[in-house]
Amino acid sequence: MITVVVAETRAYSLREVKEISGRLQSLVSSSSAEAYLKDFRQWLQDQGFVENSSSEIETWDGSVWVEWLDSDTGKYEEADHRVSIVLPSSFPYHAPIVISLDDPPLDRSWHLAPEPLYSLCLWNTERGWQPHFSAQRLISRIREWFINYHTDDWPENSQVPDLHRYLHKIGVFVIGEDWQPSCEANGRFTLWMPTTVESLPHFASTYPLGFSAAKQVKPEARLADPMHFRSDAYQRQIGVWFRVDEPFVPPRTLRDLLKRISDASHQSSGYAANVCKHTYGTKTESSVLHLAVGYTDVQDKVRWLFLRATLPEDNKRRRKLYWSNDDYLDQVKVKSYQTAPAGKRDLLRRSAFMSKELRTYRVIIFGIGALGSSVAMLLAKAGIGTLGLVDDDVVMPGNAMRHICGVNLTGFQKTLATSVLIKKHAPDCTTRNYTKTWDRSKLMGYLADFDLVIDATASHNFSLLLNEICIELSKPMIFVAAYRRAAVGRIIVHRHAADPCLACYEIGDAWNEESYPLIPPDPDGTFIEDGCGSVTEEAVALDVEAIANLAARTAVKVCQAKLGKSNVAIFVNEPVESVSKLLKSPGLHWFANEALPHCLVCQE
Ligand SMILES: [Zn+2]
User: Fold this and answer.
1) Class of the domain covering 349-591
2) What is the C-alpha to C-alpha distance for residues 498 and 593, in angstroms, rounded to an integer?
C-alpha cells in the first residue's frame, strides 16, 4: 500500500484519500466550486502542467522553477523541480498532495516523506491549507518549500512531523507513568498489550447471582483486568531501544533500520544487529521484533519512535530470522506504533486547569442509581480526587438505559461496577465503596473521611437522617432529586448555619412559590417493576443526565467556594402543568433562601 504523508494531519493511503473524500463530492460539485476548480486547473495548464491520464486520482505533472541565494558563494542559484500535484476527490476541502519527481531523489529532510512517495510537507497547523486557496498560491508555497530545502533554512513554525506518520501504523502502544528510559546507548524495554476483551458471555459465565456459574471467579478479579495499564493479564513482550545522536528518518526494512541506527550512533556497521542478536538470540522464531529509537529532533526535543518489525508470513521457513543473514533482514518490513502516552499527567492534560484544583477534594455520594452514578462519573472526570460510593443495589438489565453501567455489568454491585467505569476514565481518582446503612454511628464513620456529601437516594426519610448527621459533623451537603419523570430536578445545598437545611423545608407554611416552589406529584409517571414490587419512576436519560450535570457542577462550585448565596435550584427540563409559573418555564432557577430560626435541626 502506498502511503501519502500529509504534514499537518496524518499519513493517508491513496485508497483512503479516495474513500474519505468521495463523500464530499456532492459539495464540491456546486456551481461556485466548479468555477473554482475550472480556474485552478486552467492556471496549472497555463504554467505548463499536464494532467496525468494514467493516474487513478486527478494528478497534474509539471515543473517549478526556483531561485535562491547561496550563503556560501553569495551567488544566486537556480533549479527546476519536477512535481506531481495530486487533487483528491475531496479537493479543495482536502489539501492537494505534492510529490517530488526529481531524479535523483531529493536528500532526506524532516519535511519530506521518505521513499517511495517523497511528498512535501507543505501545510502545518500554523499555515494550513484552506479551500479557497488558488493554484497560484499553491505553486508559490511549493517554491517556498524548495527554497527552504536548498538553503536548509526552515521557518520556525514549520513543525517537525511526528515520524510515526511516515510509516504504516499498528495499534496503540500505551506508555505507563514509570517508563523512563535512561540516556545510555541502548537497553531493553517491555511492552504490555491488552489481550482480554470484555464481552457479555465473558461476564455471564461469572454471573454472581448463581446461574450458569461454570467457574467461580470473584467478580472483582474479573472486573479488575481491564482496569490497569500494566498487569499480569497483559501480554509481555521484550523490545530493544537505542539512543541516537543524529536526526533520524526511519527506513522501511530492518536491514536499513539497523544500519541507520549503527551510523547514527557512530558505531560499527554490525552494532545494532549485534545488540538485537544478544537480546533475541542468534536466531529468533518470534514473528515480531520491537524496537525503539530515541532521537533528538531539530527543535532539540528528545522523541521516541516505536517500531515493530514483522517477519514475513508468506513463507513459513523464512520466519526464523538469522541475524547473520542480510537477505533475511531485507525482507523484514518495519512499521511503527502510534504512541499514546497514558500517564496521569497526560490523562489530566485536557482538564488540568480544573483537575488540579479539585484533586484534594473528597466527595461521598449516597445512592448510585442513574442519577448518582452519572454524578460520580462527572465528578471523577472533572478531577475530584476521592469519591465514596454508597449503595446496596446490584445492576439489573432494566437499569442499563439510564445508568452509566450497561448490561455487561448486570449482577455486579452498582458501587463496584461504577468504580470500575470511573477507573477507566479517571485512573487517578480513588474510589471507596460502602454499603447502605441506617446506623447513625456507621454513617458518621463514612462521612468522617469526606469534605462534601451528596445525597441522590430519592429516599426522603434517609435524606432527613443524613441531613441531621451532616449538620452534627458540619459537613456541607447537596441533596439532588428528579421529579415528574425527571422533567424537573431540585438541588438543595446546605453549607453552614445560614443555608436552610432539609428539615427547614419540612416546615411547609414558611415557604412560598417565590422561595421554594412545590413540585406536584405526577399522576402516572411510575410503574411497578416485575418481580420486585418497588415503585420505579419513569424518566428519560436525557433529563436525568441534565440534572446529574447540574448536581456535579454545583458540587464543584461548593468545593471551590464559588456558589455565592444561592442554595436551592429548580431545573425545569420540560415544563409541567402546575399552579407554579416557574415550573412552566424551562431552564435553571436559583434561589437564595435563609435558614428558619425555629428549625430544630440546624438552629439549636
Ligand atoms: Zn434547618
Assistant:
1) alpha beta
2) 9
602 CA distance to ligand 1 middle (Å): 4
Q: What is the pLDDT of residues 263-276, one digit of tens each?
A: 888 889 889 999 99
Between the alpha carbon of residue 160 and those of residues 8, 263, 303, the distances in Å are: 10, 22, 11
226 DSSP assignment: G
User: For the CA atoms of the chain, what is the radius of gyration?
Assistant: 32
Q: pLDDT tens digit string along 544-580? A: 999 999 999 999 999 999 999 999 999 999 998 877 8
DSSP code of residue 173: E
Assign domain 3-161 to its CATH architecture. Roll (3.10)
Compute the residue count for the chain: 604
* 3-class secondary structure per residue, 283-311: EECCCEEEEEEEEECCCCCEEEEEEEEEC
Q: How far is the centre of ligand 1, averaged over its atoms, from the C-alpha of 596 (Å)?
A: 6
Could you tell me where in the chain the CATH 3.40.50.720 domains are found?
Answer: 349-591
In sequence order, which residues have a C-beta less than 8 Å from that of residue 327 and are 6 or more positions away? Answer: none
Expressed in angstroms and rounded, the spacing between residue 604 Cα and the centre of ligand 1 is: 9
Ligand 1 center from residue 477 Cα (angstroms)? 13
From ligand 1's centre to the CA of 499, what distance in Å?
A: 8
Please give the distance, rounded to the nearest whole angstrom, from the Cα atom of residue 600 to the centre of ligand 1: 7
Helix (H) or strand (E) holding 467: helix 460-473
Residue type, 578: S
**How many whole angstroms from 516 Cα to the centroid of ligand 1?**
14
- How much distance in Å is there from the Cα of 453 to the middle of ligand 1? 16
Q: Compute, in angstroms, the gap from residue 601 CA to the centroid of ligand 1.
A: 5
> Cβ distance 22 to 90 under 8 Å?
yes
Ligand 1 centroid – CA 495 distance (Å): 11
Ligand 1 center–CA 125 separation, angstroms: 57
Tell me if ipTM is over 0.90.
Answer: yes
Numbered ranges of CATH 3.10.110.10 in the chain: 3-161
What is the Å distance from ligand 1's center to 474 Cα? 13
The alpha carbon of 298 and the centre of ligand 1 are apart by a number of angstroms equal to 66
CA–centroid distance, residue 471 to ligand 1 (Å): 9
Task: Give one DSSP letter per residue of 67-125, joined into a string.
Answer: EEE-TTT-SEEEEEEEEEEE--TTTTTSPPEEEE--SSPPPP-TTB--TTT-BB----S
